[in-house]
Amino acid sequence: MDVTPILESLNEAQRKAVTAVxxxxxxxxxxxxxxxxxxxxxxxWLIDVEGVSPQGLLAVTFTNKAAAEMRARVxxxxxxxxxxxxxxxxxxxxxxxxxxxxxxxxxxxxxxIIDSDDQLRIIKRLIKNLxxxxxxxxxxxxxxxxxxxxxEGLRPHHLDDEKDPNRRQQIALYRQxxxxxxxxxxxxxxxxxxxxxxxxxxxxxLLAQYQRRFRHLLVDEFQDxxxxxxxxxxxxxxxxxxxxxxxxxxxxxxRWRGARVEHIGxxxxxxxxxxxxxxxxxYRSTKTILDAANxxxxxxSARLGKNLWTEGxxxxxxxxxxxxxxxxxxxxxxxxxxxxxxxxxxxxxxxVLYRSNAQSRVLEEALINARLPYRVYGGLRxxxxxxxxxxxxxxxxxxxxxxxxxxERIVNRPTRGIGARTLEEMRSYARxxxxxxxxxxxxxxxxxxxxxxxxxxxxxxxxxERMAKDTDGLPLNxxxxxxxxxxxxxxxxxxxxxxxxxxxxxxxxxxxxxxRGFVPDPADDMSPLDGFLSHAALESGEGQADAWExxxxxxxxxxAKGLEFSLVFLCGMExxxxxxxxxxxxxxxxxxxxRLCYVGITRAKKTLYITHAEQRRLHGTDSFxxxxxxxxxxxxxxxxxxxxxxxxxxxxxxxxNARRRSGGSIAPGSEIGVRLGQRVRxxxxxxxxxxxxxxxxxxxxxxxxxxxxxxxxxVFAYANLDLM
Length: 724
Fold this sequence. Notes:
Blueprint: H1 4-7, H2 12-18, E1 25-29, H3 35-48, E2 57-61, H4 64-78, E3 86-89, H5 90-100, E4 112-113, H6 116-129, H7 139-151, H8 165-184, E5 186-187, H9 189-201, H10 204-213, E6 216-219, H11 227-237, E7 242-247, H12 263-270, E8 275-279, H13 287-297, E9 318-323, H14 326-342, E10 350-354, H15 360-369, E11 374-376, H16 386-399, H17 404-410, H18 420-433, H19 437-447, H20 451-471, H21 476-486, H22 489-494, H23 498-517, H24 528-541, E12 552-556, H25 557-560, E13 565-570, H26 581-584, H27 587-601, E14 604-613, E15 615-618, E16 621-624, H28 629-632, E17 639-641, E18 679-682, E19 686-694, E20 701-706, E21 710-715, H29 716-719, E22 722-723
Parallel strand pairs: 1-7, 1-8, 2-3, 2-6, 4-5, 6-7, 9-14, 9-17, 10-12, 10-13, 11-12, 13-14
Antiparallel strand pairs: 15-16, 18-19, 18-22, 19-20, 20-21
């Protein structure tokens, strides 16, 4: 086969990567630079030109869809099937390995894989059998602990309780959970990777066999690898393997999921002979969009550095809209989407991106009112989310005690010791007496249940009655706020570790905002609560388009990674929302938020709008926010402000931006001899970390997060900071 067809569609940097000699190689692939093309062409090159057997290659990616696409592209290039090529996800390849070597892995031949829900049920049963307090030992918290340890490659015997009784109990639960799984031949997702790593680690001959076979290791999305995934790859590579890893340190946005961008630096230390090639030519976006992305991401200090460029058009300016509030913002976005659709463009080629799921509610309402079909990508519409349905069920039962569906949903949520047997007693009584579950509960609690079960039911019934009494006559939003707290839902979801639990609480708080903004129809003869419940029910059943329909795409910025659209809106660009409040005073967290902004900007091919609001009601609270610092990092010449904003907060585009007008190559603080993330000491405030810099010359200011005094903004020339 002529090598030209494999290389003819590649640019110079891509060709250099594809034809590289058989040494370890790190390919830093910028957004839209053709990383999948490089990976697939590298595989085709090795097989067809270098004569490597398909059985001697192993290619790893992060989704089954990406793996299938990679296989199809390789077969198209080679014009032949590659059935023996190991292409798959980490979990898929680990599963294949364990099936082949189940005995060495100390597993039964017919071991079963369990999903997250199955894992959670086992943990709940274990907690119940040990008669632990449900409130103190939430099953999701234990699940998070177990999976986190496995992702770090740690078994219970590796863990130190650090003289902490709670941690000691978590370790004990981990140990007993694993004993249950081992007895039943059950393997959870985290166990697949850990067990596969241990298989090679503990069987030297088997490891050597696979090291001889898989000399060429190709890894996609390398910046997203966690500790056990990297350890698995490092073990397989050994001293003779040739890893070819493709990633982008500027698109590492899953730290909360265990991903470690530090693995890019670790790779260079573990493989000192490794070369590095940067793919910087972008085939997706206009020059304006790329210049904006470059100007934002250059403010991160912990990066290898690259500069995206294109041979394409300069393109339109980035339009920044300063809304009065979240509804003004939503109406602006929907108006532009309507114009886009009426001009004959596909609605599916437009995306609205936001930092928090809770932001979608106001946008969804505006889209419904405008009769523009939409889909929430990778998630549920607001009123269909589990935590929202739970809260609405409490409100429904307060309003209508005969609502059996609401009763069954929340009678034991949060858990209060009302088990399946007690529920069946109630159902039987309700059927026999043609009455509601509410009435049945009262009856069986008096006559048929044991003391403990009866007490639990009575506590629930009294809770509903008390909430109904306490909220009677309150404004609708206060009713909702009191119910989500008195029911225990907020505390219940707070125990759900990680971003999921925080998101659920934010959504519950957003339900309060929805109630505050609800305007009853004067023609409806209903109480405000009943009107709101009807509104929620109708919205959960209508508005979202069918899968085949041409519709606007709504999604979080995390969900948007890997996608591209001609028209993109980045909404809610305000400090405290994006970057998120929990990351503003943490240097590593702030840099990850900036990478997320970079990902959002580079989803746009032609047209990008950035919106922010002077006032926003979110999570049940009104706030006056400053425009996101990320907006100020975009050079003025790339931006068109659609409407001058009312000066409620500080100017949107501070003087610090002036020094970035040359293209964003000067790092913040460099002019005054400091860097972001640098530790300093102040005579009064103590030690801290530089979080931001603005201004220049004698007016330069530094924002420092002090360990004991909190965040302070100081004029650098007079602050007398000791640099550490």
